[in-house]
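User: Fold both of these, please.

Assistant: Here is the first one.
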Amino acid sequence: MIKRCLTILLASLITISIMANPDSKPKSDAHVVGHVTSNGEHLPFVNIVVKNTNVGTTTDQTGHYSLSNAPTGKQVLKAHFVGYKPQEIEVDLKPNETTEIKFDLQEDRIGLNEVVVTANRGETNRQDAAVIVNVLNAKLFQATNAVCLSEGLSYQPGLRVENNCQNCGFQQVRINGLEGPYSQILIDSRPIYSALSGVYGIEQIPVNMIDRVEVIRGGGSALYGSNAIAGTINIITKEPLHNSFDVTENYALIDGTTDDNTIHFNSSYVSDNRQAGFSMFASNRKRGSYDANGDGFSELGKIEGSGLGFRSYYKMSPYSKITATYHYLNEFRRGGNQFDLQPHETDITEQTEHRINGGELVLDLFTPGYANKLSTYVSAQQTLRDSYYGAGHDPNAYGNTTDLALVAGSQYTHQFDKLWLAPATLTTGAEYQLNNLHDKMPGYQRDLKQDVNIAGFFLQNEWRFNHAQLLLGARLDKHNLIDDAIISPRANLLIHITPKLQWRNTFSTGFRAPQAFDEDLHIMAVGGEVMLIQLADDLSTERSYSYSTSFDSYYSLGNIENNFMVEGFYTKLTDVFKVEEIGVDDQGNKLLERRNASGAKVMGINLENRMIFSPKYQLQMGFTLQQSRYLSPEAWSDDTSAELLETMPRSPETYGYMSFTASPWNRFKTYLSGTYTGSMLVPHYAGYIDQDVIKHTPSFVDLNLKFSYDVKITDGVLARFETGVQNLFNSYQTDFDKGESRDAGYMYGPMKPRTIFVGIKISNIL
């Protein structure tokens, strides 16, 4: 049935593409040539487009461009490039004539004109978005020396990444204190990142696959459906923009004992007329296991991973475009002890091997002037996992999991010159989501089959007044695990108090269906036994109601450009999911059950400040103060003497980040970055210790220092040499459990101890 649906949809896309192809149209012979400069210097690889069409080109290495067979008549040419303010010039293009147009761009050092797509399912300048959208880009990944997604996510307000297992390295990202399953992770705006992907996925995705990551805090179910309670993380893959290549190698030494080597390769090609483009990535990573306390058991597991993928597009006409993407990720990871033996011959082993295939096909159709846009898409990701989660030489702990996530739909956007009171943008669409999961572990008598089918319809309208924007919308979802359809509304009001001071107000909702989540698919060893999570028979849908208000200001202090944001947020959760220890099963395995608690509320303040002292010196920092409370005290252990929890575990009340870049000389850069994590409550289960307790953890400051130097090898080939230290002051947990009776989930603080690294990048663009 699935294959049949995909075949029909693919055939439809191809048919529409052929119909949209204007090969029979004569060439206009209207040509445009020119150059792009900034501060007297020519800029290479700047995008030049004819506005309201997809016709365009890019400047070459010398900053010059040539555009052939452009649409005739009165047109608007637009030049835009990351880090610069776009410039538009009106021009009258005539057949059989060549027109010269020169652009002079001004730097946009604070990022006001950065384009985002997550705010309203369409392209919007970040400054004009009705909700706050934070962006993680290549510069930040570069500054923090991140080699995978998880190593960069903590450098945004309200976000924090944590490691939850000493054996296998299960990681999750928290938004505003809420654990990983409360966040919706998207790949190119599609929800194909499933529960199984969430177990290890943020460490499996290499940074060279990513163009940028867009983050929205607060409920997002009105746009993207189930699970977008805490927020939305949208991973935008790299699109071909110009001809380029780069090869990067990064070698790290963890605590002076453990190797971590990563190789990345990227290449892209774009035709001279920008009608077609192709980009690809490849990656390979090998990390050894790390033992922090000398007990023979790992605190960081062994990883061997690789990836390969591409993104391509073809423009059939000035008003049609088809995009295809694909990625393949393969990863082996293992933690525990006795790595030279088979898993069932060891005291503890958690081992997985993933094979992930994913991709997307999108057809975009426009009308002249771009007043109408129709996008039809199908996106899917299949994950195959072989696993061993066992202790005590258990031969029955092997398992395998198959997972398919698919989304298909259409979205229509219409630009109104005036709808009732003001110009407006209407967005509507429908999509179908499918997730088929089968997790088998015969030795534990575990055979989890979960088929999720969701039909969704969304509608929203955004009005643009002179000094304000109002967005109202809702999404209707029919989830097969929920009896009634769920309506998720949203409302956003943006007021431009002054051209450089904005006030945003947001109301949004979210929901989580009673289904298995990422931690349910991770089996953890505690006290020499495995710990399993099951769902309560009467588990109900969890819902959220989020409110936020924020002030976003842009101002200058002398030559210093500033962007300061303060945001207050409040989220109320009803029928909140919690995990509670309930005893053991017939085989002696510890059992946890996912149940509904009375509810919870999360509130706090996010602060962010960006300071551009000059093009050579930049500082970005953020800080969060928050409270995460259950509405009534909740049990977390089957030990009746254990204290009840009023505060949600693993949710510090203070945390933050900073990133400073200095370029005192043209070729030399210094990066100082770091995160702060305040004290929090962490459950510590009996095994190595006598009884279950709640640990009040210390606070941590994790600082990184990095240096880079650029060298010209030949014309068009450059090299960058890098070195530095992560976790400079070795701020790391010191009270890990020891031996086979340990609680592998008793982890907190920075992800790894002091790590020294060196690297080299060879590219035609730095």
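And the second sequence with its predicted structure:
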Amino acid sequence: MKSQEHKVASKGLKHQVMEQHPSLRSYLPRTSWFSQESLNRWATRFPVTFLKPDQGGGGTGILRIRREGGGSFEVCDRRFCCSVLSSDLYTAVKKKMLPERRYLVQEGIQLAVIRGRPFDIRVMLQKPGGRWVISGMVAKVAAKGQFVTNRCKGGRPLTVERALEEVSIREKREVEEVLRELKQMSLLTAKVLGARFPGLRELGIDVGMDRRGHLWVFEVNTRPRFQLFRKVGQPRLYSRILQTHRRLWIGASR
């Protein structure tokens, strides 16, 4: 059933829609709904597992679980980490989770780094004239000691071209090759989500790169912020995005 809503808050729902398209499936980390069973299964299966609130942004409420030796796990929020035994994992995680929120369990990806810090890329798409276009892209580098790149958590913006030149991966990829794949994947994502949710007008796709150079879609925001483009030293690009944003939302119900 198609929805005319301008915003889709559920990360799980958007993931399910994208996962149904065979050309997008390889870009999606394995994801399921949180439960005690899924937590134990995923935490023992993957070296790193992330827990994310189904709704919300800014990196708030995200937890990282790292498998350690001897049947113990490191559980981290944005403030501090603690080590727990497998028998105490569920209880420790529940204490750190945001109350009254549904959560997702997601496979942790070993991200490529820039000077030892993980980064990802925000792709901004807009739909002027009924056609999806890429309005801009910007890289976000995590602050020291952080596992999320959000600016409100200390992350800093960087041009995508510079990020791809500086990134450390096992097999170096040509910048133009990565940009071409990034654009094709982003436009396909917009097409797939736009077909299911025709009311969408803007998307902010957060894309990571692992240490092999493979791209991953971590999240798709349907009412994205775009102030990052002003912070990265692209005032003209920011102005164009802002003007298009205003045209798209004139007279629209929010």
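The helical segments are 11-19, 22-25, 36-45, 89-96, 160-166, 175-196, 228-231, 235-249.
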